Amino acid sequence: MNNDLKTECLELLKDSHLAGRIDRRTFLTGLVLLGVAPHLGPRSARAADGQLVVTNWGGDAVGAFETALTGSYAEQQGIAVKIDGSGPTKGAMKAQFESGAVSWDVCDADPGATKSLGEAGMIEPIDYKVVDREKVQAGFAYEYSVANYFLSYVIAYDAKQFGDNPPKSWADFWNVEKYPGKRSLYKWMSGCMEAALLADGVPMDQLYPLDEERAIRKLNEIKPHIVSFWDSGAESQQLMRDGEASMALMWHTRANLVEKDTGGAVSWTYAQGVLAPSGWAVIKGNPAGSARAMDFIRYCQDPARQVDLLRTLGCGPTNPLAHDLVPAELKRLDCSSAENMSQQVLMDMDWYSARGDQALEKYLAMTAS
Amino acid sequence: MMRAQSTPVRRYAATGSLAMLWALPVILTLAYVLPFAGVTLWSVTRPELGLQNYVRIFTGADFQAIFFRTAWVCLVSTAITIPIAYLLAYYWVMGSGRRSRLVEICIFIPFWISVLVRAFGWVVILRNNGLASDVANAFGLGGLSTGRNVWSVITGMVHFMVPFAVLPMASVMRKIDRRVLLAALGLGCRPLGVFWRIYLPMSLPGVFSALAMTFIFSLGFFVTPMILGGGRVVLTAETVFVQMFQTANWGLGAALGVVLLVAVFAILWLSQRVMRIEQLMSR
Questions:
Q1: Which of A20, A22, A343, B197 is least surrounded by Cβ atoms within 10 Å, i.e. has the fewest?
Q2: Where along chain B do its domains lie?
Q3: Which of A16-30, A35-49, B186-200, B243-257 is least confident?
Q4: CA-nearest residue of chain A to B251?
C-alpha cells in the first residue's frame, strides 16, 4: 500500500538537496517536517518524559518533517521530538500495540490501514476538540486518523515521444498502439485498480466501491506491456529516466523530480490522477499520552507549515487555507489545490480499509502469474 | 559433588566449561526455539484457533502457484549453480599456483559484496536498454528482453550462491588423495576415465552438500527476486513479508514460515539419506 510514501518523501528531499534544488535550510526544515532530523537514519526511538516520537517512512522525509514540523514544535514546547523513520506499516503498528510497549506517539500512516486497526481497538480516535476539523479538506478528517498531506498517483510519460499529443487519460495509458512502449505500475496496488477501471470506461465519480474482478481483467490486458511493477519511488524514476518505460503510474512528487532531472524529456499530468491522503494516527497507549499527540497533530495543521512540507517534499496540503499561501512556482506541485484536484479522483480510504487486503492478494496474484 | 574437592582454579575451569556447554542450548532456546514455538502457535491461533491458515495455503490456487514458482526457480538456479561451482572448485583445488589464486579471488570477492549491491548491479546490466541488451543488439538479437523477469532473478540467485556451493565441494576435493589418481593413471586408466570413475565419485559428497545448501538457500531468497523480478516474480519469502507487513495477516504469514521451515528440514533429511546411501554404495 502507500506505506512507502514517506520513504519516498524523504528520498525526494535528499535528492533535491543533493541536486541543489533546495538549500540546506529548507532541507533541514523538510527533515523536521517528516520528523526525521533528530536521528539521521532509520533508528528506532523510544519516547520518554518530555519527548515525542513521530514515526514516518525514513529517507528524506525525516529531514523534511524536522524542517517543516517537529523542529519548531520541539522548540516551542520545550520537549525533544524524535523522528523514527522505520515505517509505520500496518504490521508494525499492530506489533507495537500487541507488544504492550508502544514507542511511537504519532504515526504518519495509511488511513485505510489505520481504520482497520482502529476498528480492532488499537488506535486512539482523533480528538476533534483539539484537532480542528475545519482545517482539513472535507472528507479527510477520519475517525482514527486525520489527513496530514496528499500525494497523487499520476501518469508520467515520455515527452520526447508523446509531447505533441500527450496522454490525457488512463485509456491512453492502456492504448499501446497510439502510445507505443513499455509501461510501469505500482507493485502494491494503490491507485492501479482505479487506473484500470478508469481505462475501462468507469466514470470518475462512480469508481467506488471498486469492481475488483473488472479491474483485474483490465490489468491483465496491459500486463504483457509492463516492464516492471515498481516497488520504490526511486525505481519508478529510474524506469522513466532511462526510457525503460514510455509511461508509468507514479507519485506526482517523483514524476516532478524525473521531469526536472531529464530537463522535461519526461513529463506528467494530473489528468485522472488518483489523489491519496496520508494520515496522522496515534496508537493506543502511546508513551507521551494522547493529549500530547493530539496537540502535535493540531500544530501541524498550520497552513504555513503545510506549505513548508510542500516545498521540501512536494506533498500537497490538507488544510484548504494553505493553498492561498502556495507560491506560483509550487502551484503545479500542489496536488490538492482546487484547480489540480478537479482533474483527479479522490482515493476512498474506506474502501481500502474494508477491501484493501483481499484486493491486494488478488492484485499480487495477477502481477505474479 | 566435585565442587567440594576442587581447587579454586579447577572450580573456575569446571564452572567455566559448564557455562560454555550450557550457553549454546540456552541461547538457542531463547533466540530460536521459543520464538519459533510462538510463530507456530500464531499459525494455528490467528485469527482464531484451528488449521484454517494451513488449509488456505494448501488449497488456495494463489499459494500453490507461489510454491510451485518458488520450487521451480530454486531447482533451476540450483541446477545452474552446481556445475559452475564444480568447475570453479576443481580449478581452485587442482589448478596451479597463480591460476588457483585468481579463481580464489573471483570466488571470494562477490562473496563479500552485499546481496543488495549485487542485485542492483544486475539491474544495471540486465535492464532494458542496458549493457546486456546492447550486446544482444550488437549480435543482431534485437528486441531480446533481458531484464526484470524470472531469468534475471535466476541470474542474480546463481551469482549469489556459487561461492556457497564452491566451498563444500572444494573442501571435499581437497581431501581426495592425489596418490589414488596417480595410481589409476599408473594402472593405465585414461585421464578422462580417472576423472569420471575416480575423482567425480570421490567428490560427490561435496556435490550433495552443495546441492542441499544451494537449494535451501534459494528457498529463502527475498531481496534478489524483489529487485530483479520487476514485481512479477513473487516467491514464498516475499509472500511471508506481504502477510506480515502489508496485510498484517500474521497467522497466515506464520503458517507460511512454518511450511517453509518444514520444507527445509525435509530437504536436509533427504540429503542426509542420499549421502548415507552414497557412502554405502562407494564401499
A1: A20
A2: 1-45, 62-282
A3: A35-49
A4: A91
Cβ of B232 and A243 within 8 Å? no
Instruction: Name the pTM for this structure.
Output: 0.83
Residue A292 pLDDT > 70? yes
Q: How far apart are CA B256 and CA B234, in angstroms?
A: 14
User: In B, which residues are within 8 Å of A361 by CB distance?
Assistant: 62, 247
Q: Which residue has the cell 507495537?
A: A96
Distances (CA, A) of A36 to A25, A43, A70: 14, 10, 8
Between CA A337 and CA B266 the distance in angstroms is 59
Q: Which three cell numbers stand for residue A181?
A: 512502449
pLDDT digits (tens, 9 = 90+) for B170-192: 999 999 999 999 999 999 999 99
Parallel/antiparallel/unpaired status of strands A51-55 and A80-84: parallel
Contact A296, A308 (CB under 8 A): no
The whole-angstrom separation of Cα A22 and Cα A312 is 8
Is the distance from CB of A82 to CB of A47 less than 8 angstroms? yes
Phi/psi for B256 (5° steps) reads: -65, -40
Question: What's residue A37's pLDDT?
Answer: 40
Residue among B282, B280, B270 at smallest CA distance from B208 = B270
B245 vs A contacts (CB less than 8 Å): 3, 89-92
Overall residue count recorded for chain A in this entry:
369
Q: Would the CB atoms of A228 and B248 count as touching at under 8 Å?
A: no
- Residue B173 confidence (pLDDT): 95
Q: How far apart are the first and last CA of chain A?
A: 20
Q: Name residues 130-189 of chain B within 8 A of A (Cβ).
A: 147-148
Q: Does the pLDDT at position B211 exceed 90?
A: yes
Domain B62-282: top CATH class? mainly alpha
**Stated length of chain B:** 283
Residue A262: half-sphere exposure toward Cβ, Cα within 13 Å: 23
pLDDT per position as a tens digit, B88-120:
999 999 988 888 999 999 888 888 899 899 999
Question: Looking up cell 498531506, which residue turns up?
Answer: A149
Which residues of chain A are within 8 Å of residue B124 when distances are taken between CB atoms?
none
Q: What chain B residue is nearest to A231 in terms of C-alpha separation?
A: B231
pLDDT reported for residue B282: 61
For residues B222 and B16, the model is more confident at B222
Phi then psi for B193, rounded to 5 degrees?
-65, -40
Complete domains list, chain A, with CATH: 2-150+276-334 (3.40.190.10), 152-275+349-368 (3.40.190.10)
Contact at CB, A243 and B127, closer than 8 angstroms:
no
Residues of A with CB under 8 A from a CB of B: 1, 3, 89-92, 94, 113, 116-117, 182, 187-188, 226-231, 242-244, 356-357, 360-361, 364-365, 367-369
The C-alpha atoms of residue B126 and residue B161 are separated, in whole angstroms, by 18
Whether ipTM > 0.85 holds is: no
Grid cell 519469502 in the structure block, residue: B237
Closest to A54 (Cα-Cα) out of A78, A64, B23, B108: A64
Residue A368 to residue B65, Cβ atoms within 8 A: yes
Alpha helices by DSSP H, listed for A266-345, are 290-299, 303-313, 338-341
Residue B271 · residue B211 · CB < 8 Å? yes
Residues of A in contact with B38 (CB under 8 A): none
